[in-house]
Amino acid sequence: MTLPDFSFEVAAQRRGHARIAGVDEVGRGPLAGPVVAAAVVLDPAHLPAGLNDSKKLTLARREALFAQIMDCAEVSIAQASVAEIDTHNILRASHMAMVRAIAGLARPPDHALIDGNMVPRDLTLSAEPIVKGDARSLSIAAASIIAKVWRDRHMVDLAQQFPGYGWDRNAGYPTAAHQSALVTLGVTPHHRRSFKPVHNILYQDQIVSG
Q1: In 3D, which of 129, 133, 175, 142 has the Cα closest to residue 49?
Q2: Which of 30, 54, 112, 158 is the S-S candidate for 172 at Cβ 3.0 to 4.6 Å?
Q3: How far apart are CA 8 and CA 168, in angstroms?
Q4: What is the value of pTM for the model shown?
Q5: Which is nearest to 51 in space by CA: 143, 141, 115?
Q6: Tens of pLDDT along 10-66?
Q7: Rg (CA), the chain
Q8: pLDDT, tens digit, for every residue of 109-147?
């Protein structure tokens, strides 16, 4: 298995960029909850061992790495709300969260490594997109872990307020149990109304009530 490395960061430093931020988002696919982005500036002298795409790590490993990254790196976490997702679309909202995460760093980076194939249009600093960046760049991998753990914890908190949807287990993703709960329990304020399964339920309700 190929692991992410520091080659993109080194290449950027050779081009004159001293502070490199890795940026990733989590939560494009769920039916509920915000989309969350993280920006991480790693210290090359203190790289946590075992950094990888958050999707390839166990829950326990993600939690352990989350703590290590928070201790040894510069980290910023931001989100775009359900209302912003429904207003703008999920891609635009994801990019809004990324720009906010970068802006939230204590010191602006010189260059950003963005997971995906696009640089957010509102980003004014030097940046490059990296397809599958969370599996290729250590800084993006770190950002993916931070965003994933933070969002999962947030969904666990929301699950306490809105029981029955299984958000503590599915993080808002469209599992069979979640979609069944949508039908039986209805749509909450944290559901994305622009997403088809949620929209269809609301539309059906309107037809029935109409």
Answers
A1: 142
A2: 30
A3: 35
A4: 0.95
A5: 141
A6: 999 999 999 999 999 999 999 999 999 999 999 999 999 999 999 999 999 999 999
A7: 18
A8: 999 999 999 999 999 999 999 999 999 999 999 999 999
Q: Report how far residue 99's alpha carbon sits from residue 101's, in angstroms, rounded to the nearest whole number.
A: 5
Q: Please, are residues 190 and 73 in contact by the beta-carbon 8 Å criterion?
A: no
Quickly list DSSP for 47-74. Answer: PPTT---GGGS-HHHHHHHHHHHHHHSE
Tokens of residue 3, six digits: 């692991």
SS3 (DSSP) at 162: coil
Q: At what angle do helices 138-161 and 7-14 cross, to 10 degrees?
A: 120
| Pair 2, 135: CB distance under 8 Å | yes
**Residue 78, beta-bridge partner list:** 37
Neighbours of 159 (CB within 10 A): 19
Sign of torsion over alpha carbons 27, 33, 37, 43: negative
Q: How many residues does the chain have?
A: 210
